[in-house]
Amino acid sequence: MEELHLATRTKAGATPEALPVEQREAAERLADQLGWGQIHRVWQMLLKGLADVQVAPDPREAAMMALLRIIHAADLPDPATVLSRLSGEAATTAPAPSAAPAAPSAPAAQLPSDFPSLIQLLEKRGKHQLAVQLHDQVGLVRFAPPELVLKPTRPLGTDWPRDLTAVLKDATGKAWQVSLSDEQGEPSLLDQEKMAEERVRSEVLADPAVRAAFEEFPDATLESFASTKGA
Fold first, then answer.
1. Which of 104-113, 135-144, 213-222 has the highest mean pLDDT?
2. Which helix or strand (DSSP H or E) is residue 171 part of?
3. Which of 36, 76, 120, 207 is most exposed by smallest CB count within 10 Å?
């Protein structure tokens, strides 16, 4: 949990200055490997594992089981992908730009194909705070590169669209138009992940085998989707 917390701070651009070089490099590697959604899910699984360790007759066995659940979950699709499969919806693609001729200095291949790809691009560029804000604090109204319309779910500051515009231009070589709107937009990606997790949880609890297990063991609880799917 300490290593994950350190990697999270590193990903957000708040690495402690006094950190040894080896520990700093390890935190940077972990931060590059994990997305914000993955960090959220792993942290929740670690919290559950910690609670198990504190009450288990054999804390070592409880810790091993917690780690095995995390290893198993690494092979599972993220909740947003599972929700899309359950609803039968194909992955959305970015709408085509207008028929205006493209500027020769900005090849279309440089533009992100969808909103999550744009966030990943900012993470790779080291713009972790902007990536977090786009993931957690805005709903997407329109994604039509190089136009981006967002609905904030919390105050972001008057200069925020201008700062994001400058970063996107530097990252893609294209002049972007970023605007904030009161139009109805999609839930934030963080909220979508939470809804997807709840949807998967409901699907798991509705499974006949799971219902039968709960009838047989009334005091049982659903610890994680990974451990339930692997049972």
1. 135-144
2. helix 160-172
3. 207
Alpha helix segments (H runs only) across 115-159: 115-124, 128-136
What pLDDT score does 136 carry?
Answer: 94
Q: What is the mean pLDDT of residues 184-205?
A: 88
Alpha-carbon separation of residue 36 from 18, 87, 231 (angstroms): 25, 24, 27
CA separation for the pair 123, 36 (Å, rounded):
10
Beta pairing class for 177-180 and 147-152: parallel
Query: Which two three-digit tokens encode residue 218?
Result: 């009334």
Which stretches within 12-35 are classed as H helix? 21-33
What is residue 213's three-state secondary structure? helix
- The neighbour count for residue 77, using CB atoms within 10 Å, is 12
For helices 189-206 and 79-87, give the axis angle rounded to 10 degrees: 60
Torsion angle defined by CA atoms of residues 166, 167, 172 and 177, in that order, rounded to the nearest 10 degrees: -50
- Enter the pTM of the model: 0.50
Query: N- to C-terminal Cα distance for the chain?
Result: 25
Q: What angle do CA 68, 71, 76 make, to 5 degrees?
A: 125
Tell me what pLDDT residue 33 has: 83
Residue for token digits 């709840």? 198
The residue-averaged pLDDT of 199-219 equals: 82
In sequence order, which ranges of 74-219 are alpha helices (DSSP H)?
79-87, 115-124, 128-136, 160-172, 189-206, 208-216
pLDDT above 50: residue 109: no
pLDDT the model gives residue 231? 38
